[in-house]
């Protein structure tokens, strides 16, 4: 399909393609300049193969481009992983096959479109700053709670990626010396105590040591504590299970402690909580705010950040990636 050229001057006023790559799916959308998602498509992610993953990206781009009548600015791609400062190279992706892979160069050559490539949590942070819960903030932090913890920083209207491109990986701040072993190789990382994975692990520990206390949870897994997951706990909490609510409050407290620590360093105006765990709303955010009030350095003498739920949900990565490639082209960098 022929690609219509887009000039720097017109880029800001045209739709762009946003791609969000996770461990199980490649999701994409055509996104208007106001952040509206006009069309979507998805493919499964063959995470063990670089070539097949890029095939899936190309397939989603092709479907969306063929279904859109008119020019598209380019393609923005957000993926779970560590990128270098330029965004050209994926240094490491925990759930995908990329290792020091020149993703931007490879996709640009294949798709023949302007590209932005970067971390998916950075893309989500940018989307919330541009269109969502952090709109217009001087300094906004995004914390994505899912299997682990990721995030992004927007300061003075710019996405901050750090000197080496890997800023915002605060899930690997060590909060418990010699604590739980983390997939990164260290022990006691924040995401081992405040994530969906942490929620499931704590539930399993409690169920093994106090099966009577966990009786309602164990009914959901035929009495096998090893089968308990964070999703089981979340469902039980929504139905009023006292233990499940207590476990969510514990995750929320750890979240609030981490936000207090980040506030000591960065002093954000707002902290946006996204990712799968964030859909639990005040069951997690309420305890997080309570702990933040108690743990904020200088509490009583300084304001703390607002802690709010993300507004864009699962579409944040798509919307942010699309807007970032639109801005790159408008600035002559796509």
TrEMBL record:
Q: Which family does the record claim for this protein?
A: Belongs to the ROK (NagC/XylR) family.
Q: Would you say which domain of life the source belongs to?
A: Bacteria
What are the entry keywords?
Answer: ATP-binding, Kinase, Nucleotide-binding, Transferase
One term under GO cellular component: cytoplasm
An example Pfam family from this entry, by short name, is: ROK
| Record organism | Geodermatophilus poikilotrophus
In its UniProt record, a GO molecular function of this protein is: ATP binding
Write down the EC number.
Answer: 2.7.1.2
| UniProt-recorded name of the protein | Glucokinase
* A GO biological-process term: glycolytic process
